[in-house]
Specification:
The complex is a heterodimer of chains A (250) and B (134). With 250 residues, chain A is mainly beta. Helices cover 6% and strands 53% of the residues of chain A. Chain A has one helix and 20 strands. In chain A, β7 and β8 form a beta hairpin. Classes of the chains: A mainly beta (250), B alpha+beta (134). At the A-B interface, loops of A face β1 and β2 of B.
């Protein structure tokens, strides 16, 4: 087998896995002031396979709390090998529900001839505040949770509504992956890596999370805008992504 | 039957409403916020500050579930009693470098007394010298 063939096979194998925008905080709940400083990690990867793609500096990353958005200016570029990812730190000073979000620079995927823009978010509850987790931030594509997106156990069901330009989006595929960052679990076959559910007439979907850890839900929509590259217009896959943490009983 | 309905309702209420207490330091004061959730503050709830096993201060929360007390010890417990089996106790460690000594120390008093006497002697001494020159 020559090198070109092997490279092509690897490329196809890699592209079979789902892409996910990642926005992960240190913890989805804060009870203690010693854990009040959150480190939010922004990546673009295949979460189950733990394979990273290069991520340019995001267009916007910030936090939404008490009805207001605040954009971060303290993003720090990090590297794993040659691949870039980003981090921000944010000190939570008040009880509240904090929605951390990121809108990345679109990523060109040559294997699919498309740009990928996964707008990702995650929700942190600080000091048992407990209200505001179901408020939309107002992102172009967004999953608004119907299940409280923190304080969840392994085996809980997660239900959300996919919103696109402020309206529920019906018939949208939502890809679901477990963040297998330690590589501890193995899938019995490729079809098991990325789970899929579809939104109903009201844009709703549900999924039971069978493992403790972080779960990514990516609602994939063909955007109404295209991006021009090298004189050619390319479609944009816009993703509304939410990351949800489950834990075991102690 | 009615009793059991009320009893079950009460149990549900007690389960769903977990009392939370958040405290932070503001200079010489500790600000205490007590609530069941964002829109349900613990109103008029008893707040006790306990240091070395003794209650050293007490107050009640206002309509927003807030209370503010002067810091009297570097480490203490904040105990909030929301009644109906709703209680919460948290530990608090004050940053004493941010707490200004507001009670005058004995050494401060002696220093002020000596300074005042010195100023009086200096003024009268100056007047005496001016008078003698004339």
């Amino acid at each position: 087998m020559n090198k070109t063939l092997i490279s092509a096979m690897l490329l196809c194998a890699t592209s079979a896995f789902a892409h996910f925008g990642v926005a992960l905080p240190s913890n989805s709940t804060i009870d203690d002031q010693s854990n009040a400083t959150q480190k939010i990690v922004y990546k673009f990867n295949h979460p189950f396979e733990n394979e990273m793609m290069d991520m340019q500096k995001p267009k916007v990353a910030g936090v939404f709390t008490a009805g207001k958005k605040q954009n971060f200016t303290n993003l720090v570029e990090k590297k794993e090998g040659e691949l870039r990812y980003h981090e921000a730190t944010y000190e939570i000073k008040e009880p509240g529900v904090y929605q951390f979000f990121v809108d990345p620079a679109p990523y060109f995927e040559p294997a699919e001839d498309t740009f990928i823009r996964h707008i990702s978010k995650t929700v942190v509850n600080a000091y048992g505040f407990g209200e505001g987790w179901d408020e939309p931030i107002g992102l172009k594509a967004e999953i608004v949770p119907l299940t409280r997106p923190y304080g969840l156990y392994k085996g809980n069901i997660f239900t959300g509504v996919v919103m696109y330009k402020g309206e529920p989006a019906k018939g949208v595929i939502v890809e679901v992956e477990y963040y297998n960052d330690k590589g501890k679990v193995k899938a019995p076959g490729e079809d098991f890596i990325t789970q899929e559910v579809k939104t109903n007439e009201r844009g709703e979907f549900s999924f039971v999370m069978p493992l403790a850890g972080w779960w990514g839900f990516a609602a994939l929509i063909e955007d109404d805008e295209t991006i021009k590259k090298d004189g050619k217009e390319y479609p944009v896959e816009i993703g509304g992504v939410i990351w949800v943490e489950t834990k075991e009983y102690k | 039957m009615k009793f059991w309905l009320v009893f079950v309702l009460f149990l549900n209420f007690a389960d769903a409403h977990v009392l939370k207490v958040f405290a932070r330091q503001d200079g010489n004061f500790v600000e205490i916020k007590s609530y069941f959730n964002a829109s349900s503050p613990c109103k008029g709830c008893e707040v006790s500050i306990i240091a070395d096993g003794k209650v050293i201060q007490s107050t009640k929360t206002d309509d927003k579930g807030m209370a503010r007390l002067e810091i009297k010890a570097d480490k203490f417990e904040i105990f909030v009693d929301g009644s109906l089996a709703h209680e919460k106790r948290i530990n608090f460690v004050a940053d004493m470098s941010n707490v200004a000594a507001d009670e005058p120390q004995e050494s401060d008093f002696i220093l002020k007394f000596i300074s005042s006497l010195a100023i009086i002697f200096a003024v009268f001494g100056a007047l005496y010298i001016i008078k003698r020159r004339r």
